[in-house]
Amino acid sequence: MSASTDVDARSGGARALYSGNARVVVARGLLATKSTNWVVVVSGFFEPVFYLLAMGWGLGSFIGDVTLPSGTEISYAAYIAPGLLAVSAMNGAVYDSTWNVFFKMHFGKLYDAMLSTSMGPLDVALGEILYALLRGGVYAFGFLTVMQVLGLNLAWTAFLAVPAVLLVAFGFASIGMAITSYMKTFQHMDWINIVLLPMFLFSATFYPLTVYPTPIQWLIQALPLWHGTELVRGLTTGELSSASGLHVAYFVAMIAIGLTFTTKRLRALFLD
Amino acid sequence: MTTVEPMTASALQAAERPQRFGALYIAEHQLRAMRAYGWTIVVSSVGSPLVYLLGIGLGLAAFIDQPVASGPAGPVDYVWFVAPALLVAAAVGVATEEFTYVVMAGFRWRRIFWGMNASPVSPEQICSGLVLSVAARMLFTTAVYYALVVAFGAVGNPWAGLAMPFVGLLAGLAFGLPLLAYSATLTEDGGQFAVVQRFIFTPLFLFSGTFYPLDSVPVGLQWIGWISPLWHASELGRQLSYGSTPGGWPWVAHLAVLLVMAGVGWVLARRTFVRRLRG
Amino acid sequence: MSAPVIAAEGLTKTYGSLTAVAGIDFEVPPGESFGLLGPNGAGKSTTMRMVGAVSSRSAGTLRVLGLDPDTHGPAIRSQLGVVPQEDNLDTELRVRDNLIVYGRYFGIPRRTCATRADELLEFAQLADKARSKVDDLSGGMKRRLTIARALINEPRILMLDEPTTGLDPQARHVLWDRLFRLKERGTTLVLTTHYMDEAEQLCDRLVVVDHGKIMAEGSPSALIRQYSSREVVELRFGSERNAPRRRGSRERRSASRCCPTGCCSTRTTARRSSSTSPPRVCTPPRAWCGAPRSRTCSFGSRGGA
């Protein structure tokens, strides 16, 4: 008896938010995907492929090889491919956890319907994130296959890029959702794009950080996308180091902070 | 001719101003509505050229070993080459935003086009007014872009380059008006705009000689550039900036393609508005 | 005698093989309040769209203010105020700006728009909401704002398509009160409605439309006298549990319901018949006329006035 009340006392807060039923939300997402325009779903896969072809092959012929910090020289296409993979993980996760959630929250009223059942806000949040990851995982696998065909996977560790991409996406999604809970209008949502654009261009996606002055390098290294591109690039090129562990730790921390925040916000929005 | 009733006469008189200036009234409304997100327009109009010129024009350019493009006087700076294309892409980006979701909102979500339709303003004027307001936003974006291009020294002839914002505007309309004609036919958002963004805008942006000359694209893909308003406008902008590339198309040809695309889109868009609002 | 502001003869609208309006005739003299009553899909809204010069007719003649809508759309629309079925206010603008921007479509100078907007907000009892966002208004307030917007050009004819559908009873009464004042000022009103009580409140004369044709025409009270008794018994056939078992007891909740739409002809409704429990009696319709706030008709199980 006392043990169970003890448990209740400790997790009472979380229990009010979570009923352990996030998979229902994932199932709904899959069902909704099935009935939407499949071209839209497929298009998410093609965007990074277009970038890879246009920039990697096209521009690559003018750039030649890129030297990694270790001194190894790799082709430009092999350099940007992992960057594009990390960027598409970021874009997908951010889109799903911000625009998509925002729209459902304010216009679709989908969450109101979900929350009138036994599900709690955390079920919904986790379910949405998991569904986004599932889709992101499929895209990542597809993109890695393209890389393999084009000979851009330089080491056997490349297959680990799939879990790495999921980790990156999870990190962005959990923070994205926390931020979305503060958003009130579409105008607020526009600011998200304004923040993403510089991160996309500067985070060692298209060229190494070495061109920047040291303070700018530090700034970029504090931002999540740089850790994402470096982590994935380490795996596809086989240039792993202790820094890779640091990148993983960065995202683990990001997920922890993001989820804590999201839970807190969901409680404020739906239960208070 | 019988005597005209006073009520008839005053109706005819009251319609005179709206028949003449209706499009301007609609544009006024749209611009007023844009004020709601005015700050994001200003910040992204300034921020995005800054970021692109820094990132591509300076950052990426540092890694390019061999000259990408040349003008009449030999090879040119990479940033000279990309700047006109980036400016044009910014205008086209405005078009993909304003001629998609805004149109869907007008017909379906907020239904404000139907409110306008009940006034003396005609469907053609509603279409024109919308286009005018978006053109104003595009011109603002391209003018700010050009100011930053000049500040970065990314233009060969800054005086001739003054026409570049208008080239950007024309590209935005050449891409945007056909898109408007399409958007106005949609009654439901089934993700079509995302498809337009990913399968039309992105490939056009990437394969239209934006980052490297179109003739280094495999021959089988060069047609993407030929049908792309981005390529024609970028080439026009480059000719203004540093003169024509040897062996390139004459500027009149580029201009003609852009005008035809915008013109056809304009006619189709107005027709769609009439059909939709006058069932 | 002054010429009618609207005159329709054999007015017809077809969409492909579907006939929405099948040749209707009516005239509206200036200052009259004219109603189109009928179920969904009867052709009311299509008629309104043709009169509003936003939809061309397929056959027949139509003159609005002496002009043909097909050739003089802008001139006609400059004299109309239109309140559509679904609100189409601009939610990105504030309440007062909605009125000003709309006035501009008519070519009215900005300053005049602003003065009129303030007067109309007063009239619509929204003066304290002038700076609010449209989304923060209640359904009834949005409707009143839409009506205020329709008045910005001081229209000769105000057209209202189902003005109170979806509003709660109290909001309806507030709205009726405002429209009644307009009527008293001499504005010509043309409105469509599903509800006989609304038609009684607002219309001098009405036509009952169904399947694109006019079924009846006259003043509301005349129509009720001619086609219906004051009370209607509604019969419902269902499970045993729902059937009225204890005849004459106080529990008659399912068997009878007061139906103020005197001339409604829905299939489930039968005329007064002695075979079931006696119908509840409502306040007689006549007592409601002209007194918008006083009418009551309780729908509770106890019944009875």
UniProtKB/TrEMBL annotation, chain A:
InterPro entries: ABC2_TM, ABC2_TM_bact-type, ABC_2_transport, Nod_factor_ABC_transporter. It is found in: Cell membrane; Membrane. It is a multi-pass membrane protein. The chain crosses the membrane at residues 38-64, 76-95, 129-150, 156-179, 191-209, 240-261. The keyword Cytoplasm does not apply. The keyword tRNA-binding does not apply. Its main location: membrane. Residues 39-269 form the ABC transmembrane type-2 domain. Keywords: Antibiotic resistance, Cell membrane, Membrane, Transmembrane, Transmembrane helix, Transport. PANTHER family: NODULATION PROTEIN J. Belongs to the ABC-2 integral membrane protein family. This is Transport permease protein.
